């Protein structure tokens, strides 16, 4: 491996109560989907490598990637939070597809409700993206339906570093979930879709 940046690996081990574990496979029909952080970190990283990232965008990227997903512990205590996963290298569509396969249900994503960094949207419009976003799309396109522009596909497949949590919960629990996110500094957390009965798939509306 030849890299200009230092690379290290680690393993984190922990113990949790078996009744408090949130898996990515337990979403239920009728749930709403909540995303804890905006998308666009991969695009910001690509722009940084091309020296196109502004100081404000750099600060935004650092703030997001260093904001821990600390709401997760509290979310496991909320009744009717059924499933959760973190959106990382496979992008939103990749991790939503995993959730759909695990539950055997259809996940609907309302693309206009997905939080995205405005700077990342601007860079995406200029054609900046990562190579991983294309590979992510290739791996999930057979499960995804709906109308998306090329830019929207790049954003929804954008690989995230320290991305937000994707939470599936009952509509009645949504307020508590959003309040938990915001109490931990995740001000952009938003309801982005829902879970429906049907074959395991993702529909973008």
Walk me through the structure:
It is built from 8 helices and 7 strands, in the order βαααβαβααβαβαββ. The protein is α/β, with parallel strands linked by helices and 205 residues long. The chain has a single domain, classed as PurM-like C-terminal domain (Phosphoribosyl-aminoimidazole Synthetase, Chain A, domain 2), CATH 3.90.650. The chain has a 7-stranded mixed β-sheet with strand order 2-5-1-6-3-7-4, sandwiched between helices. The chain is globular and about 45 Å long. The termini are far apart. The mean pLDDT is 96.
State the total count of DSSP E strands: 7
Tell me the CATH superfamily: PurM-like C-terminal domain
Within the largest sheet, what's the order of strands? 2-5-1-6-3-7-4
Q: How many discrete structural domains?
A: 1
Q: Which class best fits the helix and strand makeup?
A: alpha/beta
pLDDT averaged residue by residue: 96
As a percent range, the share of strand residues is 15-25%
Largest sheet: 7 strands, mixed
SSE pattern: EHHHEHEHHEHEHEE
**Do you know the CATH architecture?**
Alpha-Beta Complex
Calculate the terminal CA-CA distance, rounded to whole Å: 41 Å
Q: Low-confidence segments, ≥5 residues, pLDDT <50?
A: none
CATH topology tier name: Phosphoribosyl-aminoimidazole Synthetase, Chain A, domain 2
Tally of alpha and pi helices: 8
């Amino acid at each position: 491996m030849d890299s200009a940046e230092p690379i290290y690996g680690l393993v984190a081990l922990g113990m949790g109560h078996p009744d408090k574990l949130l898996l990515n496979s337990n979403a239920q029909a009728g749930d709403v989907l909540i995303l804890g952080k905006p998308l666009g970190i991969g695009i910001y990283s690509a722009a940084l490598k091309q020296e196109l990232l502004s100081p404000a965008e750099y600060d935004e990227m650092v703030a997001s990637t260093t904001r821990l997903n600390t709401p997760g512990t509290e979310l496991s205590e909320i009744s009717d939070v059924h499933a959760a996963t973190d959106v990382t290298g496979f992008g939103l569509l990749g991790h939503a597809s995993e959730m759909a396969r695990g539950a055997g249900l259809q996940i609907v994503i309302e693309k206009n409700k997905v939080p995205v960094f405005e700077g990342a949207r601007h860079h995406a419009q200029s054609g900046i993206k990562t190579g991983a976003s294309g590979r992510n799309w290739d791996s999930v396109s057979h499960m995804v339906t709906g109308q998306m522009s090329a830019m929207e596909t790049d954003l929804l497949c954008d690989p995230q570093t320290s991305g937000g949590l994707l939470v599936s919960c009952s509509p009645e629990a949504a307020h508590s979930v959003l309040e938990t996110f915001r109490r931990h500094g995740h001000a952009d957390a938003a309801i982005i879709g829902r879970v429906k009965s049907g074959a395991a798939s993702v529909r973008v509306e």
